[in-house]
Amino acid sequence: MTFGCHLLGVENMNLYTNLLQRAQDQNPVRVGLIGAGKFGTMFLSQVQRLKGIHLIGIADLSPQNARSNLAFVGWDEARYSAPSLDDAARSGTTHVGDDWQALVAHQAIDIVIECTGAPVAAVDHILTAFDNGKHVINVTVEADAFCGFALTKKAEQAGVIYSMAYGDQPALTCDLVDWARACGFTVTAAGRGHKWLPEFRKSTPETVWDHWGINREMAERGRLNPKMFNSFLDGSKPAIESSAIANACGLQVPSQGLQFPVGGAEDLANIMRPKSEGGCLEQKGMVEVASSLTAEGEPIPYDIRQGVWVVFEGDTEYLRNCFQEYTVKTDDSGRYTSLYKRWHLIGLELPISVASIGTRGEATGFARSFNADVVAVAKRGLTKGEELDGEGGYTVTGGLRPAAASVKEGYLPLGLAQDVTLKRDIGDGKIIRIEDVDLDLTTTAYKLRKWMEGLESR
Questions:
Q1: Using an 8 Å Cβ cutoff, are 417 and 440 in contact?
Q2: First-to-final CA distance of the chain
Q3: In a 10 Å sphere around its CB, with 0-12 CB exposed, 13-18 middle and 19+ buried, how is residue 356 labelled?
Q4: Are 352 and 327 contained in the same domain?
């Protein structure tokens, strides 16, 4: 006779088996989605394959666009035509509408997925979900970058789970860091890859496809948002995601921002070690981003552009001997080695977070500290009266900085640099301060940020 973990009353470690069991028990993990853009649509393509997850509702500013994206990834129209959330909950179908407040308040929903990409709005959505006793998976990493630690604390107060989204690089990096530490290794550095040249800092939504690696026709076919993708190219998203990694893993950040050292997947152990040992780090225990281009713009072999990595240390002779005996790829000293994933699949991997929270009660990464911040940096010379257009746009890019320095200097978090007006001229490449803009101090996002700063000062 074969005994499974479920029959023995032991929590099963296999997420897929857990979802199969939930389907068999006719008790799927019940979720609601706010925002059905690119990331959300990728999730929609996969969740229809998983009977252990029931997507009860989608709230989007444009329900018609959400329905179009459902059809685009192969949903049968009958599956998303429920006239109400109540009807969807009873029938096993999905309701599409524009009322996010009704979605997060609905008694049948266990987990809310925040997927708007709008950080100020996301904070409202997340806190309201907490107030309604819902767990939250936050895809809007921009919000996590400037107040993730506060969101973690608010979730704890509400007795719910707050989680990063698996499939995005921060959660995948956290997974590697957790693996290394649970094995007993000391983490030297962790991060992601990126296609980077300094001139990309000035990229705009009009120029992004000239450098990204796909043509405009392919971008339109995939319904790709040029502003969102430009936030990757211009360095904003690497800074945002590095901030999230640092705050979740307790790592430090470079004092003057990301350095983007050049190196492929097999070069990580050499480049992501302290400067005193031939690497690029100011100290051990930092985040960084590896560039897939040389200074001349040439692609390097076996790059880590779309992946994540962790570098860890053999800090005893025995460990270094083990690396050697098992022919582990190390740096040239034999002291450091790495583990990496060359690819991440974005929203296609999001069901992992749903399954982890819904069947194990475990987040796939969350902010445990406020070590890192992302500040708004002028993309060009800006003039008094201009309106900032946030990450990936025409006016600002994001720069990673230690949180203590950012707060002390009063720097404007990138997450608050959307639809605010400049009070004075700002030079190209200069960091914008809160005092430089006409900022709405009454928003929940701003108040939460200040509350978090107060937590860190105590």
A1: no
A2: 58
A3: buried
A4: no
The pLDDT, as a whole number, for residue 382 is 98
Tokens of 423: 């009070």
List the one residue out of 78, 349, 112 whose CA is nearest residue 67. Answer: 78
Number of domains in the chain: 3
Cα separations in angstroms, 164 against 19, 22, 114, 362: 20, 23, 10, 11
Instruction: Measure the CA–CA gap between 371 and 252, rounded to whole angstroms.
Output: 6
pLDDT of residue 228: 86
Strands 396-402 and 372-378: antiparallel
What is the spatial distance between Cα 357 and Cα 164, in angstroms, rounded to a whole number? 11
Look up residue 168 and give its amino acid: D
Tell me, yes or no, whether 181 and 318 share the same domain: yes
Q: Are residues 320 and 382 in the same domain?
A: no
Same domain, 24 and 159: yes
Asked if residues 319 and 268 have their Cβ atoms less than 8 Å apart, the reply is no
Sign of CA dihedral 211, 214, 220, 223: negative
Same domain, 43 and 59: yes
Q: Dig out the tokens for 328 from the structure.
A: 């582990």
* Under-50 pLDDT residues of the chain: 1-11, 457-458
CATH number of the domain encompassing residue 405: 3.90.1210.10
Q: Give the range of the structural domain holding residue 427, as residue numbers without chain letter.
A: 372-457
pLDDT at 13: 67
In this structure, the answer to whether residues 105 and 48 fall within a common structural domain is yes
What global pTM score does this model have? 0.94
Structure-block tokens of residue 78: 């009958």
Q: Is 383 left (phi over 0), alpha (psi -120 to 50) or beta?
A: beta
The Cα 232–Cα 227 span in angstroms is 9
Both 163 and 176 in a single domain?
A: no
Torsion over CA: 398, 402, 403, 409 (sign): negative
Q: Is 294 left (phi over 0), alpha (psi -120 to 50) or beta?
A: beta
Provide the 10 A C-beta neighbour count for residue 72.
14
Contact status, residue 224 vs residue 125, Cβ threshold 8 Å: no
Indicate if 191 and 331 belong to the same structural domain.
yes
